């Protein structure tokens, strides 16, 4: 047996008042374990002879210790493929309109008032029916609504949702849905119909700081008006509806960050705390990257700077009890939708893409399309841009093949690599601090259960 190449480790935790200990993390299983330093030092030399049996068995079951002759990269790749083939939810992304009220400087889309008409909606449903009838593996459908601003195509969402739900119900399949929205139109009445009729229960809403910075960035096209107050009013209203809790709804606040608003993130965290939104929303910090080739990342923080600042923001959230979308990444079997051969992105005209950053951008041209829903399936390009991600990794065209984060990261964002930039997530730079933070959050959540705090999977 050998110690897995797919592990990360903190330094010794002397500064955290835990001398002679460290936390290790298996990216093969997404598990972290607190370990005595001498045991770690033995294990990385593949000397397991004096490791207590109970600890050895845990290290084995969580894939820290693996067979000596195993090619770990091949093992991960084969498992990923197998899990993708077994996935029983069909996931589609629909961008039902090219319209958006806002003119954010980092957005790479060209907006118009076009939206999905009835004939396009029929094609959405036909495509789903066609895949369901060909593949027996599926027993559910998951729809992500994205835009433009999806709520500008609200009537298309309602019509399509009713038809897609009916298609699922007739087969006894599950149906679930989420939405990425700017939040400007998310009023209680509309929220109620989205939840009850369309089964949209999870929302991602962007706030780029408090009013001071958000209103400089997320402004209306007409008049350049700030949108912070209206979005917050909507968030406060919908999260206080009984329906929000009854239907187990969730809102993730996404904060798009570069040098121009990074000093305002703490104020937003204070604002969430002051308005008692913890427990109702979670928060997610995202570096601004190019969008549709628009050079939006020109003011971005370096990966290291972002990673360092992120730790401060996460600690502040922890102190306030604000839930964080994800501290430690989970084991994942595909990089994103581009690697799931049945997952598609549809725009308001029936065009089909692999990536949700393609419609309405400079990537919307024919060369990047899978095809169009009005054309026969035989004309579809199965190798459309980014679909070959596994081969790109395997050829060594990007750094991922030899990276110890591969099983949890899978390459970050293929589109960023395609544009010639590394797509490594902040976790690559701040995993030591995140492992410690995750440990302390779990420890404080349950001080009484001894040993439970040693392992997190
Ligand atoms: S390639 Fe990048 S932008 Fe496109 S869907 Fe995947 S993660 Fe998102
Ligand atoms: S994107 Fe970066 S961190 Fe992720 S697998 Fe590739 S090299 Fe590793």
Please tally the helical runs, counting DSSP H or I stretches of 4 or more residues. Answer: 15
Radius of gyration: 23 Å
| Sheet with most strands: strand arrangement | 12-11-10-9-8-7-6-13-14-15
Per CATH, the class of the domain at 87-301 reads Alpha Beta
What is the count of β-strands? 16
List the helices and strands and how they pair.
Elements: E1 2-3, E2 7-9, E3 21-26, E4 31-36, H1 37-43, H2 53-61, E5 65-66, H3 72-86, E6 89-94, H4 118-134, E7 140-145, H5 154-171, E8 174-181, H6 188-196, E9 200-206, H7 211-217, H8 228-239, H9 242-246, E10 250-257, H10 265-274, E11 281-287, H11 303-320, E12 323-324, E13 344-346, E14 351-353, E15 371-372, H12 389-395, H13 406-409, H14 414-418, H15 427-445, E16 455-456
Parallel strand pairs: 6-7, 6-13, 7-8, 8-9, 9-10, 10-11, 11-12
Antiparallel strand pairs: 1-5, 2-3, 3-4, 4-16, 13-14, 14-15
The chain binds iron/sulfur cluster (2 copies).
The site of one iron/sulfur cluster has 11 residues, from helix 13.
Structure overview:
The structure is a single chain. This protein is an alpha/beta fold and 457 residues long. Among the domains are: 2-70 and 426-456, no CATH class; 87-301, Aldolase class I (TIM Barrel), CATH 3.20.20.70. It is built from 15 helices and 16 strands. The strands form 3 sheets. The chain has a 10-stranded mixed beta sheet. A 4-stranded antiparallel beta sheet has the order 2-3-4-16. The protein has a two-stranded antiparallel ribbon with strand order 1-5. Helix 11 packs parallel to helix 15 (427-445). Residues 448-453 have low confidence and may be disordered. The structure holds iron/sulfur cluster (2 copies). One iron/sulfur cluster is lined by residues 399-400, 403, 405-406, 409, 411-412, 423-424, 428.
């Amino acid at each position: 047996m050998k110690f897995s190449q797919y592990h990360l480790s903190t330094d010794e935790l002397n500064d955290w008042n835990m001398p002679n200990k460290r936390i290790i993390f298996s990216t093969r299983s997404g598990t972290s374990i607190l370990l005595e330093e001498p045991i770690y030092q033995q294990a990385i030399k593949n000397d397991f002879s004096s490791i207590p049996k109970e600890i050895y068995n845990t290290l084995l079951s969580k894939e820290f210790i693996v067979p000596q002759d195993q090619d770990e990269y091949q093992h991960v790749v084969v498992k990923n493929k197998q899990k993708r083939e077994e996935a029983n939810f069909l996931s589609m992304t629909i961008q039902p309109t090219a319209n958006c009220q806002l003119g954010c400087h980092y957005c790479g889309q060209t907006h118009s008032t076009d939206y999905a008409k009835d004939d396009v909606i029929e094609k959405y449903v036909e495509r789903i029916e066609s895949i369901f009838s060909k593949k027996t593996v599926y027993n559910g459908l998951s729809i992500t609504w994205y835009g433009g601003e999806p709520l500008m195509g609200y009537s298309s969402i309602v019509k399509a949702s009713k038809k897609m739900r009916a298609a699922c119900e007739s087969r006894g399949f599950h149906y679930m849905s989420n939405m990425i929205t700017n939040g400007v139109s998310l009023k209680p009445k509309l929220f109620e119909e989205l939840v009850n009729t369309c089964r949209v229960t999870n929302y991602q809403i962007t706030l780029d700081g408090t009013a001071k910075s958000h209103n400089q960035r997320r402004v209306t096209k007409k008049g350049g008006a700030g949108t912070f107050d209206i979005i917050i009013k909507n968030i406060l209203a919908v999260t206080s509806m009984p329906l929000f809790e009854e239907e187990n709804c969730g809102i993730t606040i996404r904060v798009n960050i570069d040098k121009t608003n990074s000093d305002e993130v703490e104020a937003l965290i204070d604002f969430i705390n002051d308005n008692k939104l913890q427990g109702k929303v979670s928060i997610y910090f995202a570096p601004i990257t190019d969008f549709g080739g628009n050079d939006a990342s020109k003011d971005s923080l370096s990966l290291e700077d972002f990673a360092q600042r992120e730790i401060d923001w996460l600690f502040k959230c922890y102190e306030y009890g604000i839930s964080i979308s994800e501290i430690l990444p989970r084991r994942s079997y595909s990089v994103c939708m581009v690697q799931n051969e049945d997952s598609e992105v549809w725009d308001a005209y029936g065009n089909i893409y692999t990536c949700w950053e393609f419609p309405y951008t400079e990537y919307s041209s024919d060369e990047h399309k899978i095809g169009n829903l009005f054309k026969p399936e035989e004309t579809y390009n199965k190798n459309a841009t980014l679909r070959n991600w596994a081969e790109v990794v395997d050829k060594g065209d990007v750094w991922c093949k030899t990276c110890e984060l591969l099983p949890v990261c899978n390459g970050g964002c293929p589109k960023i690599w395609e544009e010639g930039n590394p797509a490594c997530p902040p976790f690559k730079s701040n995993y030591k601090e995140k492992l410690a933070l995750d440990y302390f959050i779990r420890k404080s959540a349950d001080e009484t259960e001894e040993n439970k705090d040693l392992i997190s999977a």
